[in-house]
Amino acid sequence: MAVHHDPAGGQEYDATPYLPDRGGLPAHRKASAGCEGCPLYADATQTVFGSGEASARLVLVGEQPGDQEDRQGEPFVGPAGGVLRRALEEAELDIGETYLTNAVRHFKFTSAGPGKRRIHKPPTLREMSACRPWLTAELRLVGPDVVVALGATAAKALFGPSFRVTKDRGALFSPGEWGDGGGGKARALATIHPSAVLRSDEREAAYAGLVSDLRVAAAALP
User: Fold this and answer.
1) What is d(CA 118, CA 64) in angstroms, rounded to the nearest whole number?
2) Could you tell me the residue range of the domain that residue 176 belongs to?
3) How many separate domains does the chain show?
4) Bridge-partner residues for 198, per DSSP?
5) What are residue 62's DSSP bridge partners?
6) pLDDT in tens, 95-129
7) Run of H or E including 30
8) Which residue of 18, 19, 35, 150 has the smallest Cβ count within 10 Å?
9) How many CA atoms lie less than 13 Å away from 185 in the CB half-sphere?
10) pLDDT tens, position by position, 3-33
11) CA angle 81-84-85, nearest 5°?
12) DSSP designation for 88
């Protein structure tokens, strides 16, 4: 596992040594299967890399794989993925022109209850930082026109740790206003994660808000 020590004496994890020196998305997907850049790899079934074409105009970034994503090895194939696909269709966004990925590549969970059901746990800032090289590489290789952060973890990964989705969701940022330059020419915005729709007591309103934000992304596409 790639580990170094920061001046404060803590461990900093880093996936950089696992990235290939060259190659496109297929080479990066293959290399990511062996990533041990942070401790999450040890309990997860597999690395879940992004999915979609290198020519995609829109990149959607979620938090991390869920239970079904961890088992199947693809992002957004569980219940939240179903909500997202329906919302994309309502926002008149073509899923075929969309690249789906996550800020963190391994499922973080605790096991509890009958049958030891796996319960999602949010990744830490250190785990997000360790995985950031994979996301930066994907954004560079895809070169999208628009990037959408789905939920607080993805928003912090793209916009910084002080970003609040509740405050700035749906606001469109120009290339120089977000990230560390890894997004290239892309404009970006943040919205809720589709799983938040499933958890909401006001599901219809939450879903409508997600669709509304995705329509902002659609309107920003050239």
Assistant:
1) 14
2) 3-220
3) 1
4) none
5) 102
6) 889 999 999 999 999 987 777 788 889 999 999 99
7) helix 25-32
8) 19
9) 10
10) 444 434 456 899 999 999 999 999 999 999 9
11) 90
12) H
